[in-house]
Amino acid sequence: MVYEALIIGTFAATFSTATGFLLASLGEAVAERSGVMNLGIEGIMLMGAFMGFWGTWLTSNPLIGIILAMGIGAFFALIHAIISVSIRANQMIVGFTIWLALSGLSGFLYSELVLKKEQFPRVSPFATGIPILEDIEFLGLGKILFSHNILVYSAFLLVPILIFVLYRTSIGLKIRAVGENPKAADAVGVNVIRTRYIAVIFGGIMAGIAGFYLSVVFTGTFQPLMTSGRGWIAIVIVVFGRWDPKKILAAALIFGGVDAIQLRLQGFGFFPGAILTMLPYIISILALLFLSKRQVSPSALTIPYSRTE
Amino acid sequence: MGFFRQFSFRLISVLLALGITILIIYAFGVDPFFALSSLFQGSFGSLQGISETIVLMTPLLLSALGVIIAFRTKLINIGSEGQMAMGIVGAGIVSVGAEDITGLLLLALIGGFIFGGLWGGLAGFLKAKLNVSEIVSTLMLNFVALLFITYLAQGPWRDPSSVAAVSYPIPLTAQLLRFVSGTRLHIGIIVVAVCIIGVYFLLWKTTWGYRMRAVGINIEAARAGGIRVGSTIVLTMFISGGLAGLAGAVQLCGVYHRVLPAMTANIGYNSILVALLGNLSIIGSILASILFSSLIVGADTMYYLTGISRYLVFFIQGLIILFVISGDKLISDEKFGSIRQKIFSKVK
């Protein structure tokens, strides 16, 4: 009986854990497809987590929270775009620095705006579970598939939507063109700079939502530095997923599964907690070993564009 | 690009960043000038403060030296934090809970260098042989190494006589002795001084250093010129990681004397910013490390006197770097020449 609950719980947790990665990875994949690598999404996720939590906590309305999270994600992605696309500074340095700056800003804002008012703030869950379907007992399917928050379903729905947008719309074509051969795209009249801005800001919005998901939905609270490297894993997932939404989904599910499993194993006491927590990172290193031979990154990734070069 | 011009522009960038910080502090109802002055009072206004600033500078600068070597070879090594952690493991293997044997300190420092070096070299090997991006590999290795120290401190090395999850202490012969009573100032600063000279020598006076810089300037030209790029990459990452590992060993032997979880305290990540702010030069990194460690040390005092969270300091540091790299690009990139002309013609 306990085993059943454990296995069902692990499967269910796979989806909810994967969502945190998936949201951020899908956004980053779009940005990288346009040629811009945003190493700051870990920091943007933190700001999204804080703003999302703060908005929800202040107004008891998660809608306010998610709007704030998206807005802050867009704002800092805009900053990143200005410095790396327009000013053409080294994208990786910019992203890394933004991460450090925002990990500080989120912790500071949390301490000033929340901790000073309430010691252990929490927000309650919302829009979770599909009625009737979630009560299905057979194989625990109700719990595994139908008991999740609306954001989980949205994230999974986003995969086919993004596939459509990326491969069958003109904006998707522009984004891909600008990431593979910006010179050619420019020659045909595509506004490289504007397309990259759009892609990067989209990535930021998604990272903001991912942060909101982490604080408001997944944990119900905020802690400084609570993303614990999920943003970085999201970047790794983009590499594994070959910048393709389908494969990113698969990679996110794998990571979600590993993370869900190791968390549950901690309760057993067979393995030391710290070693178990290492599992997702070790898996990502091992996966890197086997997948790196065939690099299919967008050709112009991390290379700033200018007409005269 | 004149040194003075670049320096003055960087100064403007730093001041702009501080300006924004002042606005933020003001927005939260605190007197910003009092806040900033309490910050610097904390790091420079007392013997305690100055000594703590130097104590923090020591591993920061050591690790930054490693970053300089890697970045100059165009290797984006962001693994200093993990390499530092493995250095702590290497030094700890030798010294944690050990007997009072002479020469333990030297062994610990060497162990720290080697372990950190192996950790960095691993990422270098992955890059050279399998073309694994060093950004991703060093990052993941960071998490693994940091968790490993936590495991050691909570598990096999745990000191049962202490309430917190810390390791057994290291004996006196493994310690970097303190030489100013009442402060934590320790002889690790000699280690840094030696390494500064060593790194300068390595990069500019040896063939290895030449190869590293050549690979950094143009990898294909270096390869065409006969340089074995693969082994250069591995060697560079080994030394880079080794210096970060040495920084960890210094922290263990000079400051904490035990292994604690989270004892790397973001020094590795900060050292990357220090090296970048210092324009990948040794002198620049020394100046940048003074700035960064004074900010971090002063943050505590600022907190006690004004209640402003220490986290703000990370933001300030990030802001400074962002302004500096933007400013650098704006003044040096030819394409911005027309904007520059307009600004300068008005300033004249």
Can you offer a commentary on this structure?
The complex is a heterodimer of chains A (309) and B (348). Chain A has 309 residues and is mainly α. Chain A has twelve helices and no strands. In chain A, 72% of the residues lie in helices and 0% in strands. In chain A, helix 1 crosses helix 7. Chain A is globular. The model of chain B has no long low-confidence stretch (mean pLDDT 89). The two termini of chain B are 19 Å apart. In chain B, helix 3 crosses helix 8 and helix 4 crosses helix 10. Chain B has 348 residues and is mainly α. Classes of the chains: A mainly alpha (309), B mainly alpha (348).
What about the largest sheet of chain A? none
Strand content of chain A: under 5%
Largest sheet of chain B: none
- Would you tell me the overall average pLDDT of chain A? 89
Q: Spans of chain B of 5+ residues with little confidence (pLDDT < 50)?
A: none
Order of helices and strands of chain B: HHHHHHHHHHHHHH
SSE ordering of chain A? HHHHHHHHHHHH
Strand residues, percent of chain B: under 5%
Radius of gyration of chain B: 21 Å
How many strand segments of chain B? Answer: 0
Q: Helix count of chain A?
A: 12
Shape label of chain A? globular
Q: How many β-strand stretches of chain A?
A: 0
Structural class of chain A: mainly alpha
**Tally of separate helices of chain B:** 14
- Estimated helix fraction of chain B: over 70%
